[in-house]
Each structure stands twice: as structure tokens, then as C-alpha cells.
Write a structure and sequence with these properties.
Blueprint: H1 25-33, H2 39-43, E1 49-52, E2 68-82, E3 87-95, E4 100-106, E5 120-125, E6 127-130, E7 133-136, E8 139-143, H3 149-152, E9 156-159, H4 168-182, H5 194-199, H6 205-213, H7 218-248, H8 263-269, H9 276-290, E10 296-301, H10 307-320, E11 324-328, H11 332-346, E12 352-356, E13 361-364, E14 386-390, E15 404-409, H12 417-424, E16 431-436, H13 442-448, E17 453-457, E18 467-473, H14 477-489, E19 493-497, H15 512-523, E20 528-531, H16 537-548, E21 554-557, E22 570-575, H17 583-590, E23 600-606, H18 611-622, H19 626-643, H20 662-674
Parallel strand pairs: 4-7, 10-16, 10-17, 11-14, 11-15, 12-14, 15-16, 18-23, 19-21, 19-22, 20-21, 22-23
Antiparallel strand pairs: 1-9, 2-3, 2-5, 3-4, 5-8, 6-7, 12-13
Helix pairs in contact: 6-7, 7-20, 9-10, 13-20, 17-19
Bound molecules: adenosine-5'-diphosphate and magnesium ion.
Adenosine-5'-diphosphate is lined by residues 272-275, 278, 301, 303-309, 437, 461, 564, 566, 595.
Length: 678
């Protein structure tokens, strides 16, 4: 029998809000909708904005279209109904002695019961007319007699996110009282960091919370946010360090020193020399794989920088050392392509390569050469070291390789952190190499991939043609088709990309399946292939094979071909409805071309009406620098879009901002390293 847990008192900040004076079950439920459950949640409830109530603008001085705070006494109010009592306007008229202000709310007739003639009301809004002075749907706060005016007035007043039924003033008073009650008991989360934080002129955690709600000056609000964001980032960096260390204590490292007997002939038959960047990265990887701890490394390199060859060398090191290697790719098309390449490269060396996808499982038996035959490691005398290539099917139960020494994940950004770890767990702390061409803005790199070491291939192989990019409105399509036909008659090939498989209906996305017929007519006599996610994998393979063999000159595809596909003779990429893609994704798509010696052309076609979208797309005309593009995308669309839905590993921040806070994230990383055990 185990002893009953000791009755520890709940730390003050962890107490439920119901323990606060004035919070009953109804209020607690409302707060719960704002995810405020504990005292701490309440204290960290971030104001949406601040209102300068040290001065009010007289109603007579309101300016058209300019948001302002003003106040006045209610002189009239009422609801007008129209359209047979189905529509309504609630009108509130305020007078401050300088002029009248008309406030209107549409179809919220119940608002009437919140106000009464004679009340003093504070209003924040934007005048939509000056004759008479009118605001539509302004924010209001009714002054009530005997209230703590010093909380709500003569200060930069916090305006909180609310939920239905929860009054702004009530919440503000609650925060005020709670802060007064608990301020002395808000602990400093990282006592050892006090000197460093003081040196950085940052307020204490407790002080930051006070300034968050009741700042003395405008700059206080920014200072408070920075300190609280820093605390979030430090907590995150601590978790990352912990995860890292949990791998570093596993000194199970499988020594993959290799003996070059496979790598040497592999490089000799490759037909090109590795670039300086590839060689450097390979040296880093080799060091890592010989080390005491399992390798945990992210290999970043722009599209076309030649990550696959580096991965192959890595795989050979492990295979030479007698270990099994798994390579996971996000799509069947890409897995097939890798399978084809690796089979071509490695089969002559006597390496077994097999493929495992949702729809296919093959075994390529090695043509064993007496000279380069692989020695199975002592612990598994029966099995020949094998390279297994596959999709997420590898994560499933059926795949249980003996002696897994290395896991490679291609196009990591298409998988989540969890899937990555699931595959790694198929072995006993195997080495891990994840590869991505999505340039990760540094803020995300330091948070999401903070537990990985990073290698970068920062150079493209020589002899690549230029890629020119053009943004065109859809009404220019006839010229675009003419250009495309020209290039096809010169012997080049083209990708034509649509965003979806099926017609999205009256919304009007063009559908690949429907467009196929008309594209065939437009491009006749050139042959057109069709590739989309709903095809069976046999069909996909056949289409890709025909395209590679130049039996068809154009490939109509969904964004399926976004990752990895490598056909050097394809030099045109035409993307329709380009406005539906993120910039980083378009950059990936564009990476399918410019892989041979011929000049390449990427044409982004966007709706004629959508000028804004075309402006956004111009970033791609201006640069092929994947990092700049990713930063722009992060700014324009936020981290969620950039990383895709699968990215389950990213925490949510109350105060931290992944777009703006690179300096804080770096600071947090350095500070976390100073913590005990850090
Ligand atoms: P990515 O980094 O986008 O995965 P790949 O590995 O698919 O790029 O490589 C793109 C193309 O460049 C492939 O056809 C590959 O064979 C070729 N390649 C890779 N390294 C070199 C090199 N050092 N010199 C010439 N071509 C190379
Ligand atoms: Mg690739």
C-alpha cells in the first residue's frame, strides 16, 4: 500500500478563480470561456489595448474616421424597428456640453437595457459622420456611482478581451483587487537569473504583471510584454534543453564510423563532385555519427541544393557499420523517386533497398558482389543491413527493423514532431537526420527545432540555369500559353499547377481534372500528363515515368509535386491561382525547375481583380533567397500557415511573438543555459 499523498496547500496563484471575492459560478463560467481558471490565468490575461483616460476628447472635437475616447451623459435612447420588425437600430445620444454624439448599433435591440437616461458613459470609437456626429458600434463603459474611479480613470486604462455577459468594468475591478491581494506573493520564476535580468533593465515578473494591467506610461506596456514574453521563451528553452539532455544521457550511440568501402565507389560513380557546402556538412555529420550521443540534426538547404546525396552518404556510413537505415518522405511520389534513385545508386554496391508505402511494399534484393558484401552486425547475424524507404507507413506497426541505426526524414516540415519521434522509437536511440528545404525563419528554428543541431547547405551545385519569375494577371493567359508552347517546341518540359483536385464549386477554383481536357487541346500536339493525389500510386508512378522519359511534355498537377520531384529537363513552372498558396510553398514549387543547364521560367498567375495578392507574389519575382521568402511569409501569414497543420509541436504564447521576437528568443536561450542543470 502506498502512503496517501501529503496534503500540500495549493500555491496561491494556482487557486481557482472561484476563491476570489465576487466570483460565483456564473462569473467563473464566463472567465472559463476566456481560459481564465486560476488566479495566475487572471493575472496573465493580456489587455487587448489601452485607452488613454487621462484626457477625453470633447465630442465637438471628434474628427472623422479617427478613433477617439470621449464621454458624455445619456440624453436619449431607443430602438427603431424596420423591415417588418426583422431589423433594428439601437440609438444612444450623449451630451458632454460641447455637442451631441449619436451612437448606433444594428440588430442588437437588447442593448437598450444596459443604459438609462442620465448615466455617464465612456465611448471609444471612430466617427463615421460629423453632421450629426455619429459612431457605429462603439465600445462603451457605463460609469456607476460610488465605483473605484481611480481604477478606471485618470490613467492608461486596460481594455480586456471579453466574453458575452462579462462587463469590462467588472473584470478590470477584479484584476485590480486580485493584483492588490496577490502582488506580494508572485514569485520570480528564475531566481538565479535576477542579476542578468536586472542588468538587462527588465522589471521583475511581479512588476511586469502590474505594468501589464496598470502601466504608468506608454513604454511600460511594451516593457511588461517583453518581460513576460521572455519568461515564456525561457520556459520553452528549458523544455527543449531537457528533451535534448534526455537523448544525451543515452550513451547508446551506435558508432557509425563506416570504413568508406561503400561511400568511395558511390561517389566515384555519381558523375559530379560534391560542392564545398555538401562536403562540409558531410564532415559534420560524420563526426556526429561517430560520437558518444545519438545524432539529432536538422539539415537545411534550399531546394535543389543536393540534400539527397548527402543523405545517401550518411545512409552508407550506417550501412557500412552494419546498421539498418530508414528514410521517410511525405508523399508516395517522393518516396518512389527516392526508391528509384537509391536503387540505382546502391544496388550495384550490394546494398538492399526496399520500399514501404501505404500501397506498396517491395524488396530489392541486392546483387551481392563478393568484394563489397555487407557484414551483418554481430547482434543480428541473419539480417543484411537494409535501407528502407517509405512514407508515413513506416510509422505503423508493421515496420520493425532490427538494428535501426539511422533515421532520415525528408521534407521534415511536412511531418510533426510527434511523427518524427514515433519513427525514432522504432530503434534504440538511432541517429536522426531531418532534412528540410523550407527555410525556417530563425525565430521558429530556435523554438521548434531548438533540440536539434543544424547544418546548412548554403550553396547550389554549379551549372544551374537561372530561374526567372513573373507574376501575371489571369487575363494574360493566352500570351502565357504561347510562351509555354515555344519552350516545349525547343524540347523543354513544363509543370502546370492548380491548387485543388476537384472543382471547389461556384467559388471558382479551377479543377485539375476538368482542366485536363482543355489543357490537352491548348497544348496539342504536345502530350500532357495528369498527376493528383486521388490517383492510385501505380497510376502516379506511370505518369511520372512518362514525364521523365519525355513521353509527355507537360505535367498538369496539384501541389503534390511541391516536394522533392527532380526532372532537370522541366524548365517551366506555370502556377494558376497562385494567390491560394503561401510564398514558401510557391518557392518550393518553383524549386522543381532550374535543375538543369537551361534557363527556367516560373509564371505565377493570379486573379485579375486581386491586385493585393499580386503585390504579395512580387516577393518571389524579386528574390530566390528562401530565407527572405520564409520571413516574408511568416510576417504575412503567421507561423501556423508556414508550418502547416501537422506542426503539433509548437506551443501557443500569450505574450511571445514568433514574428518579432528573435532577440528575446536568443536571450531566452542564453539565459536558460545559465540555469542550474541547464
Ligand atoms: P534537394 O536538396 O532539393 O533535395 P536534390 O537532392 O534533389 O535537391 O538535388 C537536386 C539535383 O542536383 C539532383 O538532380 C542531384 O542529382 C543534383 N546534384 C546534387 N548535388 C550535386 C552536385 N554537387 N553537383 C551537381 N549536381 C548535384
Ligand atoms: Mg529533396
Amino acid at each position: 500500500m502506498s502512503a496517501a499523498p501529503p496534503n500540500r496547500p495549493i500555491p496561491p496563484l494556482a487557486r481557482p478563480v472561484t476563491t476570489l471575492y465576487g466570483v460565483g459560478t456564473e462569473r467563473a463560467a464566463q472567465l472559463g470561456r476566456l481560459e481564465i481558471r486560476t488566479v495566475e490565468d487572471l493575472l496573465l490575461h493580456r489587455p487587448r489595448r489601452y485607452e488613454d483616460r487621462r484626457q477625453f476628447r470633447p465630442i465637438a472635437q471628434l474628427r472623422l474616421g479617427e478613433p477617439a475616447t470621449t464621454r458624455g451623459r445619456v440624453v436619449a435612447l431607443g430602438v427603431k424597428w424596420y423591415r417588418k420588425h426583422t431589423k433594428s437600430i439601437f440609438e444612444l445620444v450623449l451630451d458632454d456640453g460641447s455637442a451631441l454624439l449619436y451612437c448606433h448599433w444594428w440588430n442588437l435591440p437588447f442593448m437598450e437595457k444596459y443604459f438609462a437616461v442620465g448615466q455617464e458613459v465612456i465611448v471609444f470609437g471612430k466617427p463615421v459622420r460629423l453632421k450629426p456626429r455619429t459612431m457605429d458600434h462603439p465600445e462603451t463603459e457605463v460609469l456607476e456611482d460610488g465605483e473605484e474611479d481611480f481604477v478606471h480613470f485618470n490613467r492608461l486604462t486596460p481594455i480586456y478581451p471579453l466574453t458575452e455577459g462579462l462587463p469590462q468594468r467588472w473584470l478590470r475591478s477584479l484584476v485590480w483587487r486580485t493584483l492588490g491581494q496577490f502582488e506580494g506573493r508572485i514569485p520570480e520564476p528564475w531566481p538565479p537569473l535576477r542579476p542578468a535580468l536586472d542588468a538587462a533593465s527588465l522589471p521583475t515578473h511581479a512588476r511586469a504583471i502590474r505594468l501589464l494591467h496598470f502601466p504608468d506610461t506608454e513604454p511600460d506596456t511594451a516593457l511588461a510584454r517583453r518581460r513576460l514574453a521572455l519568461d515564456e521563451f525561457i520556459a520553452l528553452q528549458q523544455r527543449i534543453r531537457l528533451r535534448r539532455r534526455s537523448f544525451q544521457t543515452k550513451a547508446h550511440a551506435l558508432p557509425c564510423r563506416g570504413d568508406n568501402r561503400l561511400i568511395k565507389p558511390f561517389l566515384a560513380q555519381l558523375g559530379f563532385k560534391l560542392t564545398r557546402a555538401q562536403t562540409n556538412v558531410l564532415r559534420e555529420l560524420r563526426q556526429n555519427m561517430c560520437g558518444v550521443y545519438p545524432m539529432r540534426r536538422l539539415l537545411q538547404g534550399d531546394v535543389g541544393s543536393g540534400k539527397t546525396v548527402v543523405a545517401a552518404c550518411c545512409a552508407l556510413m550506417a550501412l557500412e557499420s552494419g546498421y539498418h537505415v530508414a528514410l521517410m518522405a511525405p508523399t508516395e511520389v517522393l518516396a518512389e523517386q527516392h526508391f528509384e534513385n537509391f536503387t540505382r545508386w546502391l544496388k550495384p554496391l550490394g546494398v538492399a533497398v526496399q520500399l514501404q508505402t501505404g500501397s506498396r511494399k517491395t524488396a530489392e534484393t541486392p546483387r551481392r558482389k563478393a568484394t563489397s558484401g555487407l557484414q551483418p552486425p554481430a547482434s543480428s547475424l541473419q539480417s543484411v543491413p537494409t535501407l528502407t524507404i517509405g512514407t508515413h507507413a513506416l510509422i505503423e506497426a508493421g515496420f520493425a527493423p532490427e538494428n535501426l541505426g539511422l533515421v532520415i526524414i525528408d521534407e521534415q516540415h511536412k511531418f510533426g514532431v510527434i511523427q518524427r519521434e514515433q519513427l525514432v522509437r522504432k530503434g534504440r536511440y538511432p541517429h536522426l537526420l531531418v532534412m528540410t528545404a523550407t527555410p525556417i525563419p530563425r525565430t521558429l528554428g530556435l523554438t521548434l527545432y531548438g533540440d536539434l543541431d543544424v547544418s546548412v547547405i548554403d550553396e547550389l551545385p554549379p551549372g544551374r540555369g537561372r530561374i526567372q519569375t513573373f507574376v501575371r494577371a489571369a487575363d494574360k493567359l493566352p500570351q502565357v500559353w504561347a510562351f509555354l508552347r515555344d519552350k516545349l517546341s525547343e524540347g523543354r518540359q513544363a509543370y502546370v499547377v492548380y491548387p485543388r483536385v476537384e472543382d471547389a464549386g461556384p467559388g471558382g477554383l479551377k479543377a485539375v481534372t476538368k482542366e485536363f481536357d482543355s489543357l490537352q487541346q491548348t497544348l496539342a500536339p504536345f502530350g500532357v500528363g495528369l498527376l493528383h493525389g486521388r490517383l492510385r500510386s501505380r497510376e502516379k508512378e506511370a505518369v511520372m515515368a512518362a514525364f521523365r522519359a519525355r513521353q509527355v511534355q507537360a505535367l498538369l498537377a496539384t501541389s503534390l509535386i511541391e516536394v522533392g520531384v527532380d526532372v532537370p529537363n522541366a524548365t517551366i513552372m506555370l502556377i494558376e491561382n497562385a494567390e491560394h498558396f503561401g510564398l514558401a510553398q510557391l518557392h518550393q514549387l518553383r524549386g522543381r525547375i532550374g535543375r538543369g543547364a537551361h534557363d527556367s521560367y516560373c509564371i505565377l498567375v493570379a486573379a485579375a481583380k486581386n491586385r493585393e495578392a499580386r503585390t504579395r507574389l512580387r516577393v518571389l519575382e524579386e528574390t530566390t533567397d528562401g530565407f527572405r521568402i520564409a520571413e516574408a511569409d511568416l510576417r504575412l501569414r503567421g507561423p501556423g500557415e508556414l508550418l502547416g497543420q501537422q506542426q503539433s509541436g509548437m506551443p501557443r504564447f500569450r505574450f511571445g511573438d514568433l514574428v518579432e521576437d528573435l532577440d528575446l528568443i536568443r536571450q531566452a536561450r542564453d539565459l536558460a543555459a545559465q540555469l542550474p542543470g541547464g
